[in-house]
Hints:
This protein has a four-stranded mixed β-sheet. By secondary structure, it is an alpha+beta fold. Helix 7 links the parallel strand 1 and strand 2. The longest helix is centred in the N-terminal third of the chain and has 18 residues. 61% of the residues lie in helices and 16% in strands.
Amino acid sequence: xxxxxxxxxxxxxxxxxxxxxxxxxxxxxxxxxxxxxxxxxxxxxxxxxxxxxxxxxxxxxxxxxxxxxxxxxxxxxxxxxxxxxxxxxxxxxxxxxxxxxxxxxxxxxxxxxxxxxxxxxxxxxxxxxxxxxxxxxxxxxxxxxxxxxxxxxxxxxxxxxxxxxxxxxxxxxxxxx
Length: 177
């Protein structure tokens, strides 16, 4: 399990460097590569093993990672501090910071049936117009909402589901007794 607070600190430091140097998109890519090697590759257990000499782990990183020198330093730091398995959380935290910096919001649109890509793009465009941001939407299917949609953007929630409307109507009718 990744240490989320530590991952955020590493991501914040990396983001500040990337922003100052105008390399945010490069760092996005580099951090994905780092996370893949440190967490998902066959080499990951070796890199996380404190019994393997640090110099050997660093040499392995240098052989397999084709990232900027500063990003390589971050990968080495994660390995040195025993936080190599936090690399995915660092990349995700970095992406959230970068998205906020670039004015990109993520929306989850829950519907009873799958949406077409065109419809999802239209919803993204409309939400983006309201928020003044670029919105990237993903569709989640939950048949229990019956119809309509539930849209979550960050900590904002728009519940236009039939299920919620029916519950509200039921409460209203029960109160009329």
